[in-house]
Amino acid sequence: MKRANIIVKGEVQRVGYRDAVAKLARKLKIEGFVENLKHYDVRIIAEGEDANIDLFIERIEIRKFPMDVESTEVSFETYEGEFEYFEIKRGDWHEELLERLDTAGTLLYKSVELGEKSVALGEKSVALGEESVGIGEKMLEKQDKTIDAIVGVSEKIDGSKEEIVTEISSLRDDLRSYMEYKFARIEHDVEAIKAKIGMV
User: What confidence score (pLDDT) does residue 53 get?
Assistant: First the structure.
C-alpha cells in the first residue's frame, strides 16, 4: 500500500476534471481526495495498493477536450490509511456553481463548433457527389461516341484494310488523349478538394 501526493497542472479546473478523477479513483479502489488549488492547479491525495496507485497516476493524465493535463508532480509518502473513500473537496457553493456553468458553456460551444464543421463537411460531400455525377455523365457520353465509332468501323469492314487500320488508329489516339485528359482532370480535382478541406 502506498500514498501519493499529486499536483496536476494544465486545463484542469472548470472542465469536469475532478469528477473524472473521482470516478477513476472509485474504479481502482483508491481512497483520498481531489481539490482545486489557487492558480488553476489540482491536488490529489491518493492511497491504495501499489499497482492501483501506479495505474491511477497514469490514467489521470487526461488529454480529452475540454481537459488537458500538461504535467503531474508526484511525491510518495507513507501510507496512513486515513480515508474511507475518495471524495471531491469542494469550495464555496458560489464558486462551484460558476465552475459548473463554465464547464457547460465550454461543452456547448464545442458542440456548436462541431455541428458547424459537420454541416460544412456535408456540403462538401454534396458538392463532390454532384461533381462525380457530372463526370459520370460525361464518361457515358464519350462511351456512346466510342461505341458509335466502333459500329462505323464495323460497317466499313467491307471496305479496304487500310481504311479500317486508319480508323482504329484514330480511335485509339482519340481514346488515349481523352483518358490522359480525364486522369489529369481527376488529379487536379483531387488536389483542389484536398486544399478546400485543409489536407494539403
Answer: 97
Residue 125 confidence (pLDDT) = 63
- What's the CATH class of domain 2-90? alpha beta
5 is catalytic: no
DSSP 13-79: SSSSHHHHHHHHHHHTT-EEEEEE-GGG-EEEEEEE-HHHHHHHHHHT---STT-EEEEEEEEEE--
Of 3, 5, 14, 18, catalytic: 18
- At residue 79, φ and ψ (nearest 5 deg) are -65, 130
Domain boundaries, the chain: 2-90, 112-196
Yes or no: say if 36 and 8 are a contact pair by the CB < 8 Å rule: no
One of 36, 43, 172, 185 is an active-site residue; which one? 36
Q: How do strand 2-11 and strand 86-89 relate by DSSP bridges?
A: unpaired
DSSP symbols for 177-193: HHHHHHHHHHHHHHHHH
CA distance 157 to 111: 68
Q: Are 76 and 4 in contact (CB under 8 A)?
A: yes
The pLDDT tens digits for 45-81 are 999 999 999 999 999 999 998 899 999 999 999 999 9
Condensed to tens digits (0 to 9), the pLDDT of residues 152-196 reads 656 655 556 666 667 666 766 776 677 777 767 777 777 777 676
26 has catalytic annotation: no
